Amino acid sequence: MKVLGIESSCDETGVAIYDTEKGLLSERLYSQVAMHAEYGGVVPELASRDHIRKIVPLIRESVAEAGLKMSDLDGIAYTSGPGLIGALMVGASVGRTMAWSLDIPAVAVHHMEGHLLAPMLEDDAPEFPFVALLVSGGHTMLVEVKAIGEYKILGESLDDAVGEAFDKTAKLLGLSYPGGPELAALAEKGKPSEIKFPKPMVNRPGLDFSFSGLKTSALQTWTKSSQTDEAKADIAYAFQEAVVETLAIKCDRALKQTGYKRLVVAGGVGANKRLRERLAELQGTVFFPRQAYCTDNGAMIAYAGALRLNAGESEAAVISPQPRWSLESLSGLSQAV
């Protein structure tokens, strides 16, 4: 089954074709980072307009790269949420319309399920069950994954997502957008010092997170510091260490709580080098997608959609993106057959 996947939940336009027999056939990705950098963050209306400009050319390129014609496609998968409503509307409208015109089934894919299943695209894909740490600019959560569609949220951020905290802290330090990777790069130049930031909520029971206080601590420390390049690097180092250690403690706790031995890490922050090093120290096997599949991409949507389409799922001919959509509301594939 050859499935076209479309990702347009935020500021990346991703397109890919996944074949259930041959694997990934092609993929295209366009990032709007340069455009939004001028504003220091994603401007939703501009994001939507850029998706409109880029999505059809990317689909044509991806189909050609796969050596296919549009009529060779067996199904369409598109991100239906969560995300920016305008951006989601573009992908859903194009995907649903293509499916209708080609008379093939379409399926709405949950953005976070796409991230969660991204490591399955690798040769050393994890087996079920496992714990998933989903860390991005919009989400931070620990999920118990018994099978595809059988998800239980064990804990999530009560305020800022970890990627959001990285970006906001980078901005207050005067770093350019996108701030997360900039802060991580600066942290490598920093060193251990008297600067120590709290590890939020690690002394409380449970698996929820909170990162807004860390952002405030970083601001106060920077304001009182000498504000030299050295001080900035040391603050970045201390901030990243506090975040990474907090995530590691909670992941260790989740593995012990569930009794599972496998941890999957996905989402944009999963590309963080220090986080990967620290989680590798946990008791268990840790799985990461390749760097390119940590951030938003069409391949993960094509793969997740192919699994659901192959199990018999499909959507009615309506366009109804969901900017808010609980991961726990998804059906297991056994229910879809």
From TrEMBL:
The keyword tRNA processing applies. One of its GO terms (biological process) is tRNA threonylcarbamoyladenosine modification. It comes from the Bacteria. This is tRNA N6-adenosine threonylcarbamoyltransferase. Keywords: Acyltransferase, Cytoplasm, Iron, Metal-binding, Transferase, tRNA processing. Its EC number is 2.3.1.234. It is found in: Cytoplasm. Gene3D superfamilies: 3.30.420.40. Binds 1 Fe(2+) ion per subunit. Its cofactor is Fe(2+). Required for the formation of a threonylcarbamoyl group on adenosine at position 37 (t(6)A37) in tRNAs that read codons beginning with adenine. Is involved in the transfer of the threonylcarbamoyl moiety of threonylcarbamoyl-AMP (TC-AMP) to the N6 group of A37, together with TsaE and TsaB. TsaD likely plays a direct catalytic role in this reaction. Residues 24-303 form the Gcp-like domain. GO terms for molecular function: iron ion binding; tRNA N(6)-L-threonylcarbamoyladenine synthase activity. It catalyses: L-threonylcarbamoyladenylate + adenosine(37) in tRNA = N(6)-L-threonylcarbamoyladenosine(37) in tRNA + AMP + H(+). It comes from Leucothrix arctica. PANTHER family: TRNA N6-ADENOSINE THREONYLCARBAMOYLTRANSFERASE, TRNA N6-ADENOSINE THREONYLCARBAMOYLTRANSFERASE, MITOCHONDRIAL. Its main location: cytoplasm. Substrate binds at residues 134-138, 167, 180, 272. One of its GO terms (cellular component) is cytoplasm. Coiled coil: none annotated. Belongs to the KAE1 / TsaD family. Fe cation binds at residues 111, 115, 296. The gene is tsaD.
